[in-house]
Amino acid sequence: MRHALPLLAASLLALPAFAQVTPPLQRSVEQAYPQLEYLFQKLSKEKAGMTMEGRESFKAKDKFLPGKVATGLADVLLHLPKDDPRLPGMLREYADIADLTIGMDNESWGIYYYIGALHRLKQAGLLERAVRPQTLEALRKKLDWRSFVRTPSYELISLPTNYYGVAFSIARLRMLMGWEDTAGSEVLLDKMMKHYAAYSGEFGFSDETDGQGRFDRYSILLAAEICERFIETGLEVTPELKALLRKSADVALNSATADGSGFTMGRSLGPYGETAMLEILSTAAYLGVLTPEEKEYAYAYSSRIAERYMKFWYNPEIHSVDMWNGGRRTDTYRGKHRILGENFSLLHQLIATNEMWNKAGMKDVVPRKDLAAWLERTRPKFSLTRFARGEYDRALAIWRDKGHVFSLSIINGGQSQHDNSPYFPLPFAHNVISGVADSGPQNTQLLPKFTLADGSELIATAWMKDIQVTPRGAGQVLTYRQDALSKLGKNLPIKDARIRVETEYSLQPGAITRTDRYIPTAPLSVSTLSLDFPSFSSGATVEGNTVRFKEGAVQAFEVSGLSSCTAQPTGGSELYRAPYGAMNTIVRCSSGAFSMREPLVVRWTIRYQ
Predict the structure, then answer these.
(1) Scanning 32, 189, 217, 564, which has the fewest C-beta atoms within 10 Å of its C-beta?
(2) Phi, psi at residue 487, to the nearest 5°?
(3) Alpha-carbon gap, residue 385 to 247, rounded angstroms
(4) Which DSSP letter does residue 455 get?
(5) pLDDT at res. 20
(6) Smallest Cα–Cα separation from 488: which of 437, 436, 451?
């Protein structure tokens, strides 16, 4: 019967939104265990030759996989009653799998996952039966933060700076396992907090780079993640960390949706855009940084996220999370070759955050039914969260209207991401506007692209200054400027000061308008000027530079400053797939060759219902 639950959940998709009562979080997360047991049985049977969706799991070059396997299977063991007759056999199978993976590559996050699993098994009194002595001794040597941190300088070895948190967690867990003293974890804690202070600036959100200005869901999640590491390893969370967590919780609540969807800006989204919300809000509830009312509705939102995972993201036909089929697209980092590890990490996030909610006193609580009304009543219609201010401004504007939540992230994607649309300064909203993972410069979604006579391709993505917000009518106007555009084609954004731009976003009920005033510093030969809008709406008709849609949230797309527009079905092209599904129509607007001597204004308006 337990295995029938996902099938039942899938059948409920046919019901109208919110027609059924959202189940308690605990009940949805209980459906994780049949999924894990299936993977446990499959792995025990197929061992190193295990395949999923035609991919050989252990040939996927997923260097976190042994740790994810260890933690996912430990979740199963820890869930079984101590008198369950299956437990002795599953402990032996766990030991066999540990022996199988001991020689495989397992790095950084994988080390953290693995040692965390061992610590939990030790706490439950199962470790000696789950891992054989010689294997445990080998793990003691291998599961070490020094594999990616140089000593005595304590410098990370070719890794982003947020990996100090991973190293700190491993050092603390090694101490709790009795494998080392506290010295390493204390130095790494100091390094981690100094990095956070250096790259979170005055506003409390961490730059993913060394100051390039990349802020995304992980920048908002990181404070919660650090708090989780403190809780997990028995440290008291400081008032300073709780204050940072409160800021993250504000952004999460301001971004929350009644249907359980999550963050919409940045890469590696899909279900991770939603589990990030779970981590932030469960940790905030446990640490008491939410008001009692916020706690109730944050729990209701978390329950919808878990329900959405089981109904939308889990595909019972393939016994797996599904980020790759049905018109969905993810980045290379989470490609289908990593399917086994993605299942284990996501299910573990659901289980761990549910445990946090349970500790916060919400186990089996029936979620509030009026989440949508509460969000409408209590969350600001518009909010601006600043990430950085100085030579360049970075911020996140959130606009709530007609049930949509638009997240306008004004940042620089920095190295490797500046030309990918998930990092463009666009008002992303579920089923209205979406980035395309690893889109590259060929898809410059909703940003005018100048192709110059010398072959240079320029867009306005990276050098924002002077972000200002003022009320206008029933909405808001947000403005900023850039003294240069970004030249495409390189790993890093390159300034091209031949054109500067002044940008205005007008956020009004039912309509968002972007106006760009492009100013050449000298006469400039332009070969083409183009603007693309991949839309989820369908049934397009074109009248001049206005495109109207028969079906979908977007009713019309209006453009001025370009010569002509066309609209065609996307035909299922991989170029136009969001993390959660396919876009239906590609609108293309363009102008032919011209000499740019005067300022040029390009404007588009999206009208939505």
Answers:
(1) 564
(2) -90, 130
(3) 9
(4) S
(5) 60
(6) 451
Distances in whole angstroms, Cα of residue 566 to Cα of each of 174, 602, 605: 60, 17, 16
Of 183, 184, 173, 278, the closest CA to residue 229 belongs to 173
* Alpha-carbon distance values, 600 to 177, 319, 425, 591 (Å): 65, 53, 20, 12
- Whether the model pTM is above 0.85: yes
Place of tokens 């040692």: 115
Question: What is the torsional sign of CA 4, 351, 297, 223?
Answer: negative
HSE, CB side, 13 Å, CA atoms: give it for residue 354: 26
Q: Above 50 in pLDDT, residue 13?
A: no
Determine contact, residues 440/419, Cβ cutoff 8 Å: yes
Q: What is the pLDDT of residues 338-386, one digit of tens each?
A: 999 999 999 999 999 999 999 999 999 999 999 999 999 999 999 999 9
Q: What is the C-alpha end-to-end distance of the chain, expressed in Å?
A: 42
- Pairwise CA distance, residues 159 & 560, whole Å: 45
* Residue 133: Cβ within 10 Å count: 8
Angle at which helix 163-176 crosses helix 217-232, to 10 degrees, equals 10
Q: Tell me 551's DSSP state.
A: B
Quickly list H helices, 61-150: 65-79, 87-101, 109-123, 127-130, 133-142
Task: Please report, as a single letter, which amino acid is at residue 481.
Answer: R
Segment (H or E) for 450: strand 449-452
> Counting every residue, how long is the chain?
609
Q: Provide the Cα torsion 476, 444, 435, 196; round to 10°.
A: -80
Distance from C-alpha of 255 to C-alpha of 273, rounded to nearest angstrom = 11
Residue with tokens 């109730």: 296
Please state, as a whole number, how many other Cβ atoms lie within 10 Å of the Cβ of residue 453.
Answer: 11
The answer to whether 152 and 207 have CB atoms below 8 angstroms apart is: no
Backbone torsions φ then ψ of 261, nearest 5 degrees: -75, 165
Handedness of CA 77, 79, 82, 84 (dihedral sign): negative
Cβ atoms 436, 422 nearer than 8 A: yes
Instruction: Identify the three-state secondary structure at position 184.
Output: helix
pLDDT reading at 162 higher than 90: no
Cβ neighbours of residue 346 closer than 8 Å, sequence gap 6 or more: 271, 272, 275, 309, 313, 321
Beta bridge partner(s), residue 607: 511, 556
DSSP symbol at 567: E
Give the H or E element holding residue 41. helix 32-46
Query: How many angstroms separate the CA atoms of 242 and 40, rounded?
Result: 37
Q: What is the pLDDT of residues 225-262, one digit of tens each?
A: 999 999 998 999 999 999 999 999 999 999 999 999 99
Tens-place pLDDT, residues 289-347: 999 999 999 999 999 999 999 999 999 999 999 999 999 999 998 999 999 999 999 99
Q: CB neighbours (10 Å) of residue 466?
A: 12
Cα separation, 341 vs 338, in Å, equals 6
Instruction: Report the C-alpha gap between 448 and 418 in whole angstroms.
Output: 15
Q: What is the pLDDT of residues 68-123, one digit of tens each?
A: 999 999 999 999 999 999 999 999 999 999 999 999 999 999 999 999 999 999 99
Which residue from 146, 303, 169 is spatially nearest to 227, judged by alpha carbons?
169
